[in-house]
TrEMBL record:
Signal peptide: none annotated. InterPro entries: Vps53, Vps53_N. Residues 1-22 are annotated as: Disordered. It comes from Ilex paraguariensis. It comes from the Eukaryota. Residues 15-251 form the Vps53 N-terminal domain. This is Vps53 N-terminal domain-containing protein. Residues 1-16 have a biased composition (Basic and acidic residues). PANTHER family: VACUOLAR PROTEIN SORTING-ASSOCIATED PROTEIN 53 HOMOLOG, VACUOLAR SORTING PROTEIN 53. It holds the Pfam family Vps53_N.
Length: 309
């Protein structure tokens, strides 16, 4: 809004004092700013949009400077990024109540934070001179996924993956699998139909700038890790080969008495290891990395198919 006054009194510099501690110097400042927001609401929407955008950008100025510095611009410092924004949200929760709820300031601030974080992490990953340490990479990815889930729960849409995960666990137990899969399929077909019906009703006036209206926090940051997870697939392949070598050494090569098949117990163990490997990977990503791991395991089984049966 530049230097244009609000109600002839509250100016841009008043807004910039939020979160600095200066607001305590003037007891009625928060009330003045709250009233000013009502004035802004009466103006054209672009005024409010510019104000919120500038506010969010200013709030992230220190974050940008801190985490672009040599000390914290590292992959192993990723968790501290999310600690920073969480502290910021908690410490300013009461102050930011001056904004009308319909402005969704916290929501829009988190979106800008995620986009900035993704950009910075992507630059860190692309500038690595060597392959990233697998442990550090996976820990950074895991913390990122957890943060995205926190945001999804906070602003809506955070239960979808949890419900799907529960269904996968039901299948993995192996008890009456055919009926379990059928029940899950019916449930999601019904849920999808309901979702499509609701979407068709709202398509005429959907606003993507507000919570629950289509924005998805899942993957907004974590997707930048995907091209760099080759080292993880290589680790899983190495682990599979090591387990196979161990099982071969321990295998008695005897068929159990009374067994009507000639399947070795060690081959069953290998398939169990493969299933667990895919489950671990799917908890991190269901994109290209999961497919790459599947191809590695498929080639492994194909190459050793004479041994498995």
């Amino acid at each position: 809004m530049g230097e244009r006054g609000w109600d002839g009194e509250v100016k841009k510099d008043r807004m910039e004092s939020l979160g600095t501690g200066k607001e305590s110097e003037e007891n009625n400042l928060l009330q003045l700013l709250s009233d000013a927001c009502l004035v802004v609401d009466a103006l054209e929407p672009s005024v409010r949009e510019d104000l919120v955008k500038n506010f969010c950008s200013r709030e992230l100025t220190s974050y940008r400077q801190i985490f672009e510095g040599a000390e914290l611009a590292k992959l192993d410092k990723t968790e501290r990024r999310y600690a920073w924004i969480n502290r910021r949200l908690r410490s300013n929760e009461e102050i930011w109540k001056i904004f009308p709820p319909s402005w969704h300031v916290t929501y829009l601030l988190c979106i800008q934070f995620c986009k900035l974080t993704r950009s910075q992490l992507l630059e860190i990953l692309e500038n690595l001179k060597e392959k990233p340490d697998v442990g550090t990479l996976l820990l950074a990815l895991q913390r990122t996924l957890e943060f995205e889930e926190e945001l999804a729960e906070k602003f809506g849409g955070g239960t979808r993956d949890r419900e799907m995960g529960t269904d996968i666990e039901d299948i993995d137990r192996g008890e009456n699998n055919s009926q379990t899969v059928l029940d899950i399929r019916k449930k999601y077909e019904k849920r999808l139909a309901a979702h499509q019906g609701s979407r068709n009703e709202k398509d005429g006036h959907k606003d993507l700038s507000v919570p629950g209206a289509g924005f998805n926090f899942h993957g907004i940051i974590s997707s930048c890790f995907e091209p760099h997870l080759t080292v993880y697939v290589e680790l899983e392949e190495k682990t599979l080969m090591e387990n196979l070598e161990k099982l071969v050494q321990e295998e008695t090569w005897d068929i159990e008495e009374g067994s009507q098949t000639n399947i070795l117990s060690s081959s069953m163990q290998v398939f169990l290891i493969i299933r667990r490997s895919l489950k671990r990977c799917s908890a991190l990503t269901k994109n290209q990395t999961l497919f790459n791991l599947f191809k590695v395991q498929f080639n492994f089984v194909s190459f050793n198919c004479d041994w498995f049966v």
